[in-house]
Design goal:
- The complex is a heterotrimer.
- Helices cover 35% and strands 26% of the residues of chain A.
- The two termini of chain A are 50 Å apart.
- Chain A has 19 helices and 25 strands.
- In chain A, helix 8 crosses helix 19.
- Chain B has one domain: ABC transporter involved in vitamin B12 uptake, BtuC (Orthogonal Bundle).
- Chain B has a two-stranded antiparallel sheet.
- Chain B is mostly helical.
- Helices cover 76% and strands 2% of the residues of chain B.
- Chain C has one domain: Orthogonal Bundle (ABC transporter involved in vitamin B12 uptake, BtuC).
- Classes of the chains: A alpha/beta, B mainly alpha, C mainly alpha.
- Chains in contact: A-B, A-C, B-C.
- At the B-C interface, helix 5, helix 11 and helix 13 of B face helix 5, helix 11 and helix 13 of C.
Chain lengths: 511, 318, 337
């Protein structure tokens, strides 16, 4: 029997932005009455693909065929009008407005030119009731929890006669019961003939409700399969680009650097909790040790780092530095305790774009370069020159505005910002992201050197090589919790991925 | 094209000023007379002094609409002190000293209050400073019951009427303040912190900068400078009228800052630019006046210049 | 099938936000009633037809301006030019008054609307912050007003029936009050029963979402600023008609009274929530304070000068801001949990 034509077929989609190729002939096929998962790590291209579909971006090449007809949406409104609705992770509705208003916003029913509230409320209630949701539709949206807000977004999509509903990380803020409710709704959508594109990294959820999965990596579609035909481990392996057989065969790789003499307990973070993002994270670092923090997107690694650094307040949990419990009310406190933090997103959290390389590099060091309020410009210049050389920062000069540097060089400046403060603990969030291979090696060697000198390093990384080869220990996080702690000699790509996939390592120790 | 636009933004103000001066040199009789220059500089001085404080506030991404009202409070307080015969103000030296120090400190304290609203209460700077915009002048009026306070005190009025070497004192004061603050912006840790906070507040915070303290400080400085400006104005007039002192000053100050090249979004500051901007606005007004265009219509031109200047600066930041 | 029980509310976030808003709204109403009661018991003639009529007549101007400001603030913007636009309109009305009330009214409101449209275009097209734009148009409007009026006040015509708009009564009710009531009723209907009104709130609540929903954000912004200008124009007509002259220097501080009234009434400065009725209560509240001050002064017991007004208005604004801030913060914290 020939396969029925898919509802949506995106073929050979390519999209580039200045300096970066986001999609290389990617494809996506969603069938009728199907719940289809779309997975991939950061930079894989899945959000770009969605934006191309929904009209936020125009594709450079490729075809999109929806229900047999070729389409080219130029705006999300156009996509919505043609049956493709998106439910965003940050529920993009109007918080102060009521449920029924949000469902009908833009097409409010009218009688004699004035809004017919009774009809609007009645019809909203009916749509939600169909999904088994009973709420007071006159209540402002923000009074309802996120789960209900999502239902309202879905109800809005359905009221627009959606044929395909794209859900972007729909379960990331939901608890178990709410997830179950959402799954019921998704199954009802299926029964009603609406297909769902489920974009998520939560493996358990994908396996619970999806029929097929498309895996993306580096802008390409690497695989498309029925969920029933793939295991979680295989899925993770495909996402990260590792051949599972090869990994199983290889065993642990040789560790280039010398073993680090771990001394006293520098950092001990226990049971960190913060809203939905952190649900009991634990991590410890000894002086001279490099600890890797691994996990899939959204596992809570950055939140852990920020909480330790005092950038976000904790709901519960304890942080100890050198055995003493500390409470950092602001990053300033942490900096004074000689802790450094290099953030993941250098554009929003790292660089001050209009300031020079010199200024950005010495930003955290300024208090120590100042006497009587005046900055010692000579010492500043000397330090900057030293670190430019040491890290091989390619710049026209220390006074060049940092925004003119390449991403990799900006990252080096940010690293230098902390290195020049002579910290005892350095927290690095994806330090080698966006850096060319040569520079990566330089930075990794530098980190090793510093650890040899007694610096403690907590390194968040999505690069398995970095984790297996460069760390003394790897802590794996999943869903806001630390789920495994793997010593270097047992840290293989397989064991780390297994912990990410299942929440416990098969070859390592259990946290 | 982009390079040309960048050049306009950086040097545009200066070039505009030069063109205006040249135009007047050629077409306006009596332009290069000591009197003309003195009159113009005098009017510009108070705007620049307030404008310097405004520049700092804007550099952190904020705004201060209360400057005019703070001038009024400072003027009112000084007037009360100068006219008071109660101890310790019966001692002439103490009276003059107090008349200088207390009003400026009071204005500074109100500035701290503005900063507190912005940092602790998380109120948008426009609204936060709007509170004192409304209430501040009222406070000054209540203090003096709306009455004109006329006084004569030569030592005190030196700040407005003094002429060391033939140059009005407030002009020297203005130049000194501009020079000091411009230097501070470049060479002190505080100056660099102001620009970092305005340039990327999140990054500044993550680099350990005391963001809240920096913000409170700039509002405090704006208040202090407004206080000084208030003293100059009442010295010039030999009287303090709470209804009039500092009226519309916030507009003039913002205009000077915007036209001078400091973007309203923060992250950059050019104090010298504010000086040039104030001169441009003043010279524009003077040029129009000298050629028979009524002051009132000049306001329309002023408005247009502000919008254009802000628009140009906005494009730079994007 | 899930039921209400399984679908639970985040109690804290809900109750605080709604109770807070409700309390604020009722609190203002209670304050108004309390003030009326206070005035009625304390002063003879407080509730007299004369006093009521004159208070309402005088505050009708501020009420109209506040109505326009309410709509602008609900979209998350602000309009600082309303005072100057009203002054300009009063001059225009005075100049055209010899032709009769109709043409004068039309011309003045049109002038205000054009200025408002200008504001709207600049705000919607460039992305300059509204307060900067309207600060600039404040200057321009005042400049125009002074130019048209030749730097002095312009007497209105007393023979054309123009002054009826400001000084006349219909069945004992001052004409300005009728205009005010009609405007507010219309405003309330627009806000609560038209798509445009709901979209005004949507744009202020989450402009990005509004764009994604295809709500015509630019059109909404153009409309509210034009409305604000037109209402300021109307206020200017009443100003000229009531006091017999178009005054280019009037309107000073009107925008601040308007903002205070709007905020006191419970409308959020950041936009997205608002009430026309509550704005009216806010206007009356602030107007009553002034009235009571007058009475107090008349009694001679205390002598609070009129200057206390601005201090009180400022203090009011501050208290309301702090309250709004507390409520928002508590709601955010509860929502995060």
């Amino acid at each position: 029997m020939p396969e029925p034509a898919p509802l949506l077929a995106m073929e050979r989609i390519s999209k580039s932005f200045p300096g970066v190729v986001a999609l290389r002939e990617a494809s996506l096929r969603v069938g009728r009455d199907e719940v289809h998962a779309l997975v991939g790590q950061n930079g894989a291209g899945k959000s770009t693909l969605i934006k191309v579909l929904t009209g936020v971006y125009r594709r450079d090449a490729g075809d999109i065929v929806l229900d047999g007809g070729s389409v080219d949406f130029r705006s999300p409104q156009e996509a919505q009008a043609n049956g493709v609705s998106t439910i965003y992770q940050e529920v993009n509705l109007i918080p102060f407005r009521s449920v029924s208003e949000n469902i009908f916003m833009g097409r409010e029913p009218r009688r004699f030119g004035l809004i017919d509230w009774r009809r609007m409320n009645r019809e909203s209630g009916a749509i939600l009731h169909r999904f088994g949701i009973d709420v007071d539709v006159t209540k402002p949206l923000l009074n309802l929890n996120v789960a209900i807000q999502q239902m309202v977004a879905i109800a809005r999509a359905v009221s627009f006669d959606a044929r395909l509903v794209v859900m972007d990380e729909p379960t990331s803020s939901l608890d178990e019961r709410e997830v179950a409710t959402l799954f019921d709704v998704i199954r009802q959508l299926k029964r009603d003939g609406v297909s769902v594109l489920f974009v998520s990294h939560r493996l358990d959820d994908l396996f619970a409700v999806c029929d097929r999965v498309t895996i993306m990596r580096d802008g390409e579609t690497v695989e498309e399969r029925a969920i029933a035909d793939i295991t979680k481990l295989e899925l993770v392996a495909r996402m990260l680009g590792r051949d599972l057989n090869e990994v199983r065969r290889s065993g642990s790789t040789s560790f280039a650097a010398s073993a680090h003499h771990a001394a006293g307990q520098l950092l001990e973070a226990t049971d960190l909790r913060r809203g939905h993002a952190l649900q009991g994270a634990d991590v410890s670092v000894r002086a001279g040790e490099i600890v890797g923090l691994a996990g899939l997107l959204g596992s809570g690694r950055t939140e852990t780092a920020r909480a330790i650094f005092g950038a976000d307040p904790l709901d519960a949990g304890e942080v100890r530095i050198d055995g003493t419990a500390v409470r950092f009310d602001s990053p300033g406190d942490a900096v004074r305790a000689r802790i450094g933090f290099s953030p993941e997103d250098r554009k929003t959290d790292g660089i001050v774009p209009w300031m020079s390389v010199r200024e950005n590099l010495t930003l955290a060091l300024l208090p120590r370069l100042t006497r009587l309020g005046v900055v010692d410009a000579a010492r500043q210049r000397e330090i900057v020159d030293r670190f430019i050389k040491r890290l091989g920062i390619k710049t026209a000069g220390p006074d060049q505005p940092i925004r003119e540097l390449s991403g990799g060089n900006q990252q080096k400046v940010l690293l230098a910002r902390w290195l020049c403060t002579d910290p005892r603990l350095l927290i690095l969030d994806e330090p080698t992201r966006g850096i060319d291979v040569g520079a990566k090696g330089e930075i990794q060697a530098l980190i090793n050197e510093l650890a040899d000198d007694g610096l403690g390093v907590l390194m968040i990384s999505s690069e398995l090589d970095e984790l297996t080869e460069g760390c003394d220990r790897v802590v794996v996080m999943r869903d806001g919790r630390s789920v495994a702690e793997i010593e270097h000699n047992e840290a293989t790509q397989g064991s780390i991925m297994a912990a990410m996939a299942h929440g416990e390592s098969q070859e390592g120790t259990m946290a | 094209m982009a390079a040309a636009r960048d050049a306009i933004r950086t040097y545009g103000a200066f070039v505009a000023l030069v063109l205006l001066v040249l135009y007047n040199l050629v077409f306006t009789p009596n332009f290069v007379s000591a009197q003309t220059i003195n009159v113009n500089l005098t009017q510009v001085a108070t705007i620049v002094i307030v404008g310097v404080g405004m520049t700092l506030v804007i550099a952190t991404g904020g705004i201060d609409l209360s400057v005019g009202s703070l001038m009024a409070i400072s003027g009112a307080l000084a007037g009360i002190i100068l006219l008071s015969s109660q101890p310790p103000f019966d001692n002439p030296a103490a009276k003059v000293a107090a008349a200088f120090v207390l009003p400026v400190l009071a204005a500074g304290a109100f500035g701290v209050f503005n900063g507190f609203q912005v940092t602790r209460l998380r109120i948008q700077p426009v609204i936060a400073t709007l509170v004192l915009f409304i209430a501040g002048r009222g406070i000054a009026q209540v203090m003096t019951n709306g009455n004109l306070q006329a006084f004569r005190n030569e030592s005190f009025q030196y700040i407005g009427l003094g002429r060391p070497f033939g140059i009005p004192f407030q002009v020297i004061l203005m130049l000194a303040i501009v020079a000091i603050v411009a230097w501070a912006m470049r060479a002190t840790i505080f100056g660099r912190y102001v620009l970092a906070v305005g340039g990327n507040e999140r990054a500044a915070r993550l680099a350990g900068l005391p963001v809240n303290r920096v913000k409170v400080a700039v509002y405090a400085i704006s208040g202090l400078l407004s206080g000084v400006a208030g003293l100059i104005v009442i010295s010039l007039n030999s009287s303090s009228d709470a209804n009039q002192v500092g009226l519309n000053m916030e507009l003039d100050a913002i205009a000077a800052v915007a036209v001078g090249g400091t973007p309203l979004t923060g992250g950059h500051a050019t104090v010298v630019g504010t000086l040039i901007g104030a001169c441009i606005m003043q010279l524009t007004r003077y040029t129009l006046l000298a050629h028979g265009i009524p002051d009132a219509l000049a306001l329309v031109v002023k408005a247009g210049i502000i919008v254009a200047a802000v628009n140009v600066q906005r494009q730079r930041s994007s | 099938m899930t039921t209400d029980a399984a679908v639970r509310e985040r109690g804290d976030a809900g109750t605080f936000a709604r109770a807070g808003a409700l309390l604020q709204r009722n609190g203002v109403l209670l304050a108004l009633i309390a003030l009326i009661a206070f005035g009625a018991t304390r002063y003879d003639g407080f509730l007299s037809a004369y006093n009521v009529a004159s208070v309402l007549r005088f505050n009708s101007m501020f009420g109209l301006v506040a109505l326009g400001m309410c709509f602008v603030i609900m979209t998350g913007g602000i309009d600082l030019s309303v005072g100057s636009v009203a002054a300009l309109a009063s001059v225009v009305a005075a100049l055209i008054s010899p032709l009769g009330p109709g043409p004068a009214l039309g011309a003045a409101v049109l002038a205000g609307a054009l200025f408002g449209l200008g504001n709207g275009i600049i705000v919607a097209r460039t992305r300059i912050q509204p307060f900067v734009v309207t600060l600039a148009t404040l200057l321009a409007a005042r400049g125009l007003a002074l130019t048209l009026a030749n730097n002095t006040s312009v007497a209105v015509s007393y023979t054309s029936g123009f002054t009826f708009i400001g000084q006349g009564d219909v069945l004992g009710v001052p004409v300005p009050v009728i205009i005010l009531v009609v405007a507010y009723v219309a405003g309330s209907v627009v806000l609560n029963f038209t798509r445009f009104g709901r979209h005004v709130l949507a744009v202020g609540g989450n402009e990005e979402a509004g764009l994604l929903m295809g709500l015509g954000v630019t059109r909404v912004k153009l409309a509210v600023y034009t409305m604000s200008g037109a209402l300021a124009g109307l206020a200017g007509v009443i100003l000229a008609a009531q006091f017999g002259a178009g005054q280019p220097t009037e309107g000073l501080g009107w925008e601040l009274s308007a903002i205070a009234s709007v905020v006191v009434g419970g409308t959020l400065l950041t936009g997205g929530i608002g009430s026309v009725g509550a704005t009216l209560v806010g206007v009356l509240l602030l107007g009553l304070i002034f009235n009571i001050l007058n009475f107090e002064n008349g009694r001679g017991v205390i002598s609070l000068s009129a200057y206390w007004q601005s201090v009180i208005r400022g203090a009011f604004l501050l208290i309301v801001l702090v309250l709004q801030n507390r409520l928002t913060r508590r709601r955010d914290e509860a929502a995060r949990a």
